[in-house]
Amino acid sequence: MIILNNYKIKNSKGDLIKIIDKKNFNRSFQEFYITSINLDDIKAWKKHTKATLYFIVLDGRIKLVTRVRNKFISKIIKKNYLNLIKIEKNTVFGFKGLSKYKSNILVVSDIYHKKNEVINYPLGQYDYRW
User: Fold this and answer.
1) Is 14 buried (19+), middle (13-18) or exposed (0-12) by CB count in 10 A?
2) What is the pLDDT along the chain (130 residues), one digit of tens a residue?
3) Nearest to 87 by CA among 52, 36, 47, 45
4) How far is residue 97 from each of residues 36, 37, 53, 126, measured CA to CA in Å?
5) With contact defined as beta carbons under 8 Å apart, do 130 and 78 qualify?
6) Are strands 16-18 and 31-37 parallel, antiparallel or unpaired?
7) C-alpha 15: how far from its chain's center?
8) Do 66 and 91 form a contact (C-beta atoms < 8 A)?
9) What is the Cβ-side half-sphere exposure of residue 72, based on CA atoms within 13 angstroms?
């Protein structure tokens, strides 16, 4: 999990927040989608074997957990357009909804979604306490 910082351009009529910059992408992006999660629900565990993903929390708050070299790394992420979270291919990850209301996450992928490149593991696959 890598946190890339976007930047804000202040304007008295309303700020501009730069979300996507080509310099943050190894390849061009192919797909944008929004995934949502309810309070206390968990979407885990997934591993994309070919796709690098970028997350931006649009509404709410989530706990994002990645597993790298048999270690868990967790981060609480809330609505903050200045944080772009990069999840490299072959990284196991999951997330939990922490907001009273549904949390929405914009996901940018560098490839088109293909079922055969995603490995879904059961929640109990890893010994992690959410």
Assistant:
1) exposed
2) 666 666 677 888 888 777 776 666 556 788 999 999 999 999 999 999 999 999 999 999 999 999 999 999 999 999 876 788 999 999 999 999 999 999 999 999 999 888 899 999 999 999 999 9
3) 52
4) 9, 5, 19, 19
5) no
6) unpaired
7) 24
8) yes
9) 15
Residue 14: predicted pLDDT: 86
Q: Distance of alpha carbon 115 from its chain centroid, rounded?
A: 18
60 contacts 38 by C-beta, under 8 angstroms: no
DSSP string, 38-61: -BT-EEEEEEESS--EEEEEEESE
Instruction: Specify the residue for token string 């994309």.
Output: 48
Which residue is it, tokens 């890893």? 126
Structure tokens at 74: 């967790």
E strands, 1-130, are: 2-5, 7-9, 16-18, 31-37, 42-48, 53-59, 61-68, 71-78, 83-87, 92-97, 103-109, 118-120
Rounded-to-integer distance, Cα 108 and Cα 68, Å = 21
